[in-house]
Amino acid sequence: MHPTDRLRPAVAHALWHLVLAGASLAMAFPMLWSLLTSFKGPQDVFSPSPLPWPATLDNYAAVLSSWPVGMLVGNTFIMSAGVAAGQLVIAVLAGFALVVLAPRMRPAVLSACTIALAVPPQAIIIPQFLLTTRLGWQNSELGLIVPQLGTSALAVLLLVEHVAAVPAAQIEAAALQGARPIETLWHVVLPAIRPAILAVGILVFITTWNEYLWPLLIAPRSHDATVQIGLAQFQGEGGTDYGALMAASVLTSLPIVVVYIIASRRIIDSFIKAGLRP
Amino acid sequence: MNPSSIVAAKPNGSAVNGAELELSGLRRQFGGVAALDRVDLRIKPESLTVVVGPSGCGKSTLLRVLAGLDRPTEGRVMSDGVDVTLSPLGARDLAMVFQDYALFPHMTVAGNISFGLRLERRHDRRNGPSREFIDREVSRVAQLLNLESLLRRRPAQLSGGQRQRVALARAIVRQPRVLLLDEPMSALDVGLRATARTEILRIHRELRSTLVLVTHDQHEALTMATDLVVMDAGRVLQAGPPEDVYRRPANEFVARFVGSPAMNLRPTDAGSVGWRPTDGRLYPRGGEGDLVLTGVVERCEYTGSGQEVVCRDAHGTFTVVQQQGEEWVRPGDDVSVGVRQSALHRFDLFGDRIDG
To answer: Which residue from B19, B20, B24 is spatially nearest to B76, judged by alpha carbons?
Structure first.
């Protein structure tokens, strides 16, 4: 054996770590920058020095006194959780139906889902808006959540494959033991696809949290609005208050960061088991 | 009541009895291929019927149709005279042990065994089994299959043999009238198979259900069956007690498939003639018997209780079993084999058995 052969894996390892560390830094940079900027005074916002000196909490004070942080975060959380839960219910039921109850429908329905993914949301947003207002759902959680359940195609596509991966014999064994379809779903299929459900749920939750156009249309009033709409208010005609914008961004991302820190191990585990990238 | 007995009184007090199954004109088509082709079969109540055949012969499809997991394209399945061809799963009073056991991985052993009973209770709070009854039944079958110390484990923490016993326990806890077993031994180490066979035979004896077992192992089939069914290409070739199938195979396929080493066959003017390797006797040239063939010894395989001598003649090879103490031949020897008339099996040009 050549002496460098033993070194090679270690060198490759180190190189890989270097690449990954660089990528992580690149991804963390915008967040780091906004965190640092949020402590800068108005005169330093555009200074090339990354360090906020002298540091100030004025931005946070201003945001907390004039901006309904709790309300916006609460609204956004209810909307995101509602959409995630609703899409999961639809996707799980669809997955079970397409794999167990009506497998012949599977190719047709999955093709339809794939086509639905290709339709840009802007193309249907006007009829969707008209329908929602006619139902009288503007400025309400119903109006924020229900129309966004119509875009469950991705969740269906992701979960169907996981339902299909549950061994057929287990589903048949449950049926032979006298389980009704809904009982088979609940006792046999759901526990088997739990990691995938968590992963898809997080994916939908984050996408919905970042949603801008629909909340802007349906709930533009500040006390019904979501975080993304609220943040946009800092970019006014009279210029943008970057310090306050960054402070508000930091504050509103705190809940998600905290949840992630608490549950990071389970979340990463779910994505690995589900074979999905967040 | 004997605590080790498998048959507990059901809530209504009746003892379990196996059902009689009757298949008539059964056909199951997958695309252009008939997995089952006009199958007529009567499965006696409380029998241990073993369905045997090579891979793809339709035996698994037969079992799935019996279970109701698969609908026949044509024909009927009767259970005690009642047509159950289209009755829903779970309404047939039968249980099945799957080839890979299909245990529920997130439930404990106890949870797996009690699954069906717990569903029964949920479906019918008034007349369904009580919680105490469920606990009692689970510990009864756990004791019977030696699973008491494993009840809190999950399937992933069990060995292959233990998983199989859990699958059996889950199948018999509700005392089904029919128990279907799909290649129950195939996932086990050779050493465990004998134990598993004994376990299944004991369950059959005590449960008094009708057992239908599917296997591709003719040895397993011969040793376990009260009734043997040989299938090939979607058809039942022969059904009957294993001794009959072994002694009077209905055709060349059954003759070759059942018995090990396989029956020797040689063409004749009217079809073919066959004899079991144990029925031939070797002579050093010029033997005695009603059929005498000559050949050269190709190889000798020591079996412990004797040896299997493989000889070559103009038509290929044939095998003769020599008992311990008479292993005098060596590879390269010129030999004759003699077979008595009574040990010969004759088949016509279609391969069907001739004579009585």
So the answer is: B24
Amino acid at B156: A
- d(CA B160, CA B158) in angstroms, rounded, equals 7
The answer to whether residues A219 and A138 touch, using CB atoms and an 8 Å cutoff, is yes
ipTM of predicted complex:
0.85
What is the distance between the alpha carbons of residues B167 and B144, in angstroms, rounded to a whole number? 13
Q: What residue in A sits closest to B95 (Cα-Cα)?
A: A176
Per the prediction, chain B carries an average pLDDT of 90
DSSP state of B276: -
pLDDT digits (tens, 9 = 90+) for B264-279: 999 998 899 999 999 9
Which among A169, A183, A188 is the nearest to B98, CB-wise? A169
Please tell me which of the candidates B68, B105, B115 has its beta carbon nearest to residue A177: B115
Low-confidence ranges of chain B (pLDDT < 50): 1-14
A32 Cβ neighbours under 8 A, 6+ residues apart: none
Nearest to A189 by CA among A81, A108, A100: A100
Q: Which of A275, A274, A133 shows the shortest CA–CA distance to A198? A: A274
How far apart CA B110 and CA B103 sit, in angstroms, is 11
Residue B186 near residue B99, CB atoms below 8 Å: yes
A183 touches chain B (CB under 8 A): yes
DSSP one-letter code for A185: I
Q: pTM for the whole thing? A: 0.83
